[in-house]
Amino acid sequence: MISKHLPKIITLILCFAEVGVAAEPARRINANEYPSLQAAVDAHGSGGGILTIPPGTFEIAEPIVVKTGETRIEGSGAATLIVNKDTTGKPALIIQPPDIDKNKNAEIWRVHVGNLRITGNPKSGDAIYARRVQEIFIQGVSVDHNGGNGIHLDRCYEDPRISDCLMTYNGLAGLQITECHDIVVNANQFEDNQDALRCVDSFNLCCNGNNIDDHKRHGIVVENTYGSVISGNMIEECNGTAIILDRDSYGIAVSANVVAHHLGGGVDLKDANGCAISANSFVLCHGFGVKASAESTRNSISGNAFANTYIGGGKLKRPILEHENKMQIDAGAGVVLEGSSDTVITGNTFTGLDYEAVKATGGAKRLLVTSNLLTECCRRSGPEKPWIVIEDSAGSIVKDNLGAK
């Protein structure tokens, strides 16, 4: 009888192997029952499960290392606090396959981290460092005052999701993403990191509905990434630039963001092609609203509002023209093209700007600048000067702009 059913038994075994049946069953672990968080994590075995961490302060000197997939680390909200006491740059929480150092292609799947807080010190490393974790999901986590990044995703290629997290006062980026794709970064808050979000060597970033404020350098930095959308974010008061697209980025939509109060500028297309910059509000940008270099071509800049703090009735909300703190000065900036070609600038409003609405230099060519509205430009350089300046206008069309001088 056994021999009769042997082919079916073998088939079932192979099917179970294909879907990755765990060698051990998933377990529910309560950290209270173990001498350390690491011991509680290790108790999962290879089958994964859920680790519940109760309220309390947990000081660690070595990283907590999670090596099992199908695992959830669940805290008790802000009452669960992990404090990284390390001063040699080590992360607080490492998530990675058990054999990652021997097998560069090793991976684990579906690790969730939620509802806890991780803090460190200026000499500690990342709060959470995850590498080769597919479908990682981090939600409702607070990471602050860590010496490295708040959250660092390293080659978490398949469908990483970061949502409803608070990333503040970290020495590097609030969120660093390296070699990932189909990425969701949604409804998070970033404040006073070096940069808010860095996404490099990746694609299909969906970055929406985040609040980004008070960064020492930049807001969102995207490098060597394509096919992405950055929309509906509030980005305020970066000492550098709100959004940077660099290193062969292409096919990216930057839309419906509020880009407010930046010393450097709004959107810097350092090396970006085939991108749409549309329906954004650029207010109180001191350096530029949108800037594009010679490496950035074939872009569309349309339907944006470039403005200062004008509130109607001839009044400014921030009337200060000179102040020791530049952030206090009323300002507005437009589009600067430094050699960029094949660019459309249409349907924008340029109002209350310190200098030109559009300035194209460095051999910028094949420009279409039409149907824009301009009011009160060149406030600092002299309103009698041209508000649209294109050094080499051959092959460009500049027409039907209302209010242009």
Number of helices: 2
Principal-axis shape equals: elongated
Estimated structural class: mainly beta
Strand content: over 45%
How can the largest sheet be summarized?
Answer: 38 strands, parallel
- Average pLDDT value? 93
Q: Give the termini separation.
A: 95 Å
In the predicted model, the low-confidence regions spanning at least 5 consecutive residues are 1-22
Q: Report Rg.
A: 26 Å
- SS elements, strand count: 44
As a percent range, the share of helical residues equals: under 10%
Please outline the helices and strands.
Elements: H1 2-19, E1 27-30, H2 37-42, E2 49-52, E3 56-60, E4 64-66, E5 71-74, E6 80-84, E7 93-95, E8 108-109, E9 111-119, E10 128-131, E11 133-134, E12 137-144, E13 151-154, E14 161-163, E15 166-168, E16 173-178, E17 181-186, E18 189-191, E19 195-208, E20 211-215, E21 220-226, E22 229-231, E23 234-238, E24 241-246, E25 249-250, E26 253-255, E27 258-262, E28 265-269, E29 272-273, E30 276-278, E31 281-285, E32 290-293, E33 300-302, E34 305-307, E35 310-312, E36 315-316, E37 335-338, E38 343-346, E39 349-351, E40 358-361, E41 367-370, E42 373-375, E43 388-390, E44 397-399
Parallel strand pairs: 1-2, 2-5, 3-6, 4-7, 5-9, 6-9, 7-10, 8-11, 9-12, 10-13, 12-14, 12-15, 13-16, 14-17, 15-18, 16-19, 17-19, 18-20, 19-21, 19-22, 20-23, 21-24, 22-26, 23-27, 24-28, 25-29, 26-30, 27-31, 28-32, 30-33, 31-34, 32-37, 33-38, 34-39, 37-40, 38-41, 39-42, 40-43, 41-44
Antiparallel strand pairs: 35-36
